[in-house]
Every structure is written in structure tokens, then in C-alpha cells.
Design brief:
alpha/beta, TIM Barrel, Lyase, Ornithine Decarboxylase, Chain A, domain 1, 8-stranded mixed sheet, 16 strands, binds pyridoxal-5'-phosphate
């Protein structure tokens, strides 16, 4: 019996450091710099510091509150706001973020106004939508948008960016990256400037990077998942040489009994409005661990013992275990990106750094 509370995530900072350094080195081999994305771990300052110590000098987060948190904790980095800022947030964005991804002129004008008032410069990366259809201006609109941005005071247009493989699940391939490089070249020629930062995407750019000799003008990627979970997000394959187990979810068995596999009685809706179906395979060993859908989606985690997840309600997760496991024993799980996202924010899940 252990006395450390459950449920908890054990966070191996050494493994995160190894992944961050390895990816930084890998991408540097073709001239690409890495920005560390902290949103999936809610910008935990311990973890942010590990990224900085691993040689990453720009940290990015979607939420300004997370950037403020890292600043207040004294994290020594430059900060990029990932989610395009809202109009109402513009003042705080200039105050707390060194740079931001943008796609709306009205917002950039606001940023300019506050930057002038604060007598500072806010750096802007204009997002170009290459087909994933989340944020960004369409390629035909880049030129006139840049023209307007260049007229604004207090704003430094430092480059272009794109984001793929998020909402539309569109693969960042050679065609998309060549297109971003071409747009960069056109803009530079048109306005007689040099764009210093061309951010081609996120962890999903891994297979493009590996299969291309010439990365064109792309000199930056924004990485979260591959640093923390050691895999690429297109097919969720492990990246060679990286740790995929830097995070471990640890739960505790609170009931352990032999019971039927199929529920008995009239089947109606379950806790979440689904009508469950269970195959009758006779009596099985059923284990309950003390975690539930409020903390993590059952389908986003995988037990490291010989057992399958039967299902979960808000606070109970059921396993069919092929071995007897007694009450009080801990069961470890591998977690995926969406599990890490939700577990990070849950106040019911303790974070333990090792
Ligand atoms: C979350 C996010 C990233 C990081 O994505 P990963 O797949 O975790 O590497 C990069 N860019 C933007 C705009 C994001 O929102």
C-alpha cells in the first residue's frame, strides 16, 4: 500500500527533456527551430522550465492565462500566443505576450493601438489557411492583409505561419509547405522585405520533415504533442529515439470482484445518454478504479496491465482484468493527447514530478 494519493499523473521531467533536446536537434539538422507548446500541460512552470533548459527559447500557449502564469513563475523565455487573440483581450496580449499568431486585421489594429500606448512593439505572425480551415487568411488575401499590417505602428510583422492537421485533419505535406514558401517569396518580393520566421505547423509536420530534403523557407515549427508524448499525431506512431511514457496515469483499485459480463435487467440509457451493449462472456473479474469521465475520457487511456476498459461513468472506471488485482493496488495507464489535456486541468488529479 502506498501513501501517495491517487489518482495522479507521474511526470518524468528527464524524459521530457530528452524528447525536447532530441527534436530540437533533429529539426535543426535542416534549419528548423522549435517553439515549445505548453497548452496540453496547462503551462506547468516546472515543465516550461525543462523546455527552456533543453534549449527552447520561445514558449507558446493558446491561453493568455497560461502565459501570465509562466511569466509570474519567472520562466526565462519569449512567449507566443497561439490562439488568435480576441478583440477584448488585445490590451493584455500586448502586455503579456511578446508575439501572437493572427488572422484578423481589426484585432491587429487593436494590438497596434495598445502597443503604441505602451510604447512597445508587438510581433505578429500572420496565419495563412492552407486547407485545414481553422484559423488563417486565405492565400489570395495574404498580400492585401500584409500591406495593411505594414502600415501599423507598434506592430512588427515577423513572419507567416500555417496550421494543419487540427480541425480538418489535413496532412502537412510537401505541396502545402511549398505553397507557404512560395507565398513567403511573393510577399517578400512585393514589399521588399525579409520575413524572418516561417512557421510551417505543429507536431504533425514530422513525416513531411523526414521525407523532404529541401524544407524551402520553413524555418520554424510549434511542437507540443511530439515533445510530451514522443509520437507524431497523423498516425500516432512513436518517433524513434523518443520516450512515449513521460506521463503515467496512476489510479487505485476501489472494488475488485467476479461478476457477470453482461448487465442484468432492462437496458436503457447509461449516464451519458448512450445505450450500452455488452457481450455475455460469462463471469469476469471486474475492477473499479477511482477515476472517471470528469477527469479523463475512458477511450483516451490504456492500462499497462493485462486488462481491458469496460467503460466509465463520471467517477468510476471499470476494467475487465485477466488477473486478480486486489483493492488498494495501483493500476498504471498510458495516456494520449486528449487524456493529457483533460487530466492536466483536473484539480482531482495530483501532479507528481519525478
Ligand atoms: C496546439 C497548437 C500547436 C501544437 O500542436 P501539437 O500537435 O501539440 O504539436 C501548434 N500550433 C497551434 C496554432 C496550436 O494551436
Amino acid at each position: 500500500m502506498t501513501t501517495i494519493t491517487t489518482p495522479r499523473i507521474e511526470i518524468n521531467l528527464g524524459k521530457i527533456a530528452h524528447n525536447a533536446k532530441s527534436l530540437k536537434e533533429l529539426y535543426a539538422s535542416k534549419g528548423i527551430d522549435v517553439i515549445g507548446v505548453t497548452k496540453v500541460v496547462c503551462a506547468a512552470p516546472n515543465i516550461a522550465d525543462v523546455l527552456v533548459k533543453s534549449g527552447i527559447s520561445i514558449l507558446a500557449d493558446s491561453r493568455l492565462a497560461n502565459i501570465r502564469k509562466m511569466r509570474q513563475a519567472g520562466t526565462q523565455a519569449q512567449f507566443l500566443l497561439l490562439r488568435i487573440p480576441s478583440l477584448s483581450q488585445a490590451e493584455s496580449v500586448v502586455k503579456y505576450a511578446d508575439m501572437s499568431l493572427n488572422s484578423e486585421l481589426s484585432v491587429i489594429k487593436r494590438l497596434s493601438k495598445f502597443a503604441m500606448e505602451m510604447m512597445t512593439t508587438h510581433k505578429v505572425i500572420l496565419m495563412v489557411d492552407l486547407g485545414d480551415l481553422r484559423e488563417g487568411v486565405m492565400p489570395v488575401d495574404v498580400e492585401h492583409t500584409v500591406k495593411e499590417i505594414l502600415e501599423l505602428q507598434g506592430i512588427e510583422m515577423i513572419g507567416l505561419g500555417t496550421n494543419l492537421a487540427c480541425l480538418g485533419g489535413i496532412k502537412p505535406d510537401a505541396e502545402k509547405m511549398t505553397k507557404l514558401s512560395a507565398i513567403t517569396g511573393d510577399i517578400e518580393a512585393k514589399f521588399g522585405l525579409t520575413l524572418g520566421l516561417i512557421s510551417g505547423g505543429n507536431s504533425a509536420n514530422y513525416s513531411w520533415f523526414n521525407s523532404t530534403e529541401d524544407v524551402g523557407r520553413i524555418n520554424n515549427l510549434r511542437l507540443g504533442e511530439s515533445i510530451f508524448l514522443g509520437c507524431e499525431p497523423l498516425y500516432r506512431r512513436p518517433i524513434p529515439g523518443l520516450f512515449t511514457d513521460a506521463f503515467t496515469l496512476v489510479t487505485e483499485v476501489i472494488e475488485s470482484k467476479t461478476k457477470p459480463s453482461a448487465p442484468q435487467g432492462d437496458v436503457c440509457q447509461d449516464a451519458f445518454g448512450n445505450t450500452p451493449e455488452f457481450a455475455d462472456i460469462g463471469n469476469i473479474h471486474r475492477i473499479i478504479v477511482g477515476i472517471g469521465e470528469q477527469d479523463v475520457a475512458a477511450k483516451a487511456i490504456k492500462p499497462r496491465v493485462n486488462a481491458e476498459i469496460i467503460g466509465a461513468s463520471s467517477d468510476h472506471l471499470l476494467l475487465h482484468s485477466h488477473n486478480y488485482i486486489e483493492v488498494g493496488k495501483e493500476i498504471e495507464f498510458d495516456i494520449n493527447y486528449s487524456a493529457l489535456l483533460r487530466l492536466s486541468i483536473s484539480p482531482y488529479v495530483k501532479k507528481v514530478y519525478i
